[in-house]
Amino acid sequence: MSNNIRGGDAPIPCQLEADKNYAWCSCGHSSDQPFCNGNHKKEGGTNPMIFKVEEAKEAYLCTCKQTSNPPYCDGSHKN
Ligand code: FES
Q1: How far from the centroid of its chain's Cα atoms is residue 33's Cα?
Q2: Is residue 27 part of a domain?
Q3: Which atom belonging to ligand 1 lies closest to the Cα atom of 26?
Q4: Looking at the predicted structure, is the pLDDT value of residue 4 above 80?
Q5: Hey, which of 6, 46, 55, 68 has its CA 20 to 30 A from 25?
């Protein structure tokens, strides 16, 4: 069992750089949303999702952790 929570109620627009590894917080416990700050270890949450993009772009990253398309917002925070 994982101890995940909502990390926020709306996505955060982020400027992503090409070919850089990002650690998206999947557990909701990070105070550095939408990215992992290591809190999943002490809170018993799920591990971060490591991802990168091929081209620099702005993306709306999920903070509610309900998205079906992590790390991106799919509108699930409105549910
Ligand atoms: S703090 Fe949430 S995945 Fe690391």
Answers
A1: 7
A2: yes
A3: 3
A4: yes
A5: 55
Whole-number Å distance, alpha carbon 29 to ligand 1 midpoint, is 6
In a domain, 7, yes or no: no
Mutating to test ligand 1, I would choose from 40, 50, 63, 65 the residue with most ligand atoms within 8 A of its C-beta, which is 40
DSSP for residue 42: H
Query: Alpha carbon of 5 to those of 2, 40, 65: distances in Å?
Result: 9, 10, 8
In a domain, 50, yes or no: yes
Our answer on whether the CB atom of 39 is closer than 6 Å to any ligand 1 atom is yes
> What residues make up the domain containing 34?
12-78
Residue 54 lies in a domain: yes
For 43, other C-beta atoms within 10 Å of its C-beta total 16
Q: Which atom of ligand 1 is nearest to the CA of 47?
A: 3
Average of per-residue pLDDT values in the chain: 97
pLDDT single digits (tens) 32-48: 999 999 999 999 999 99
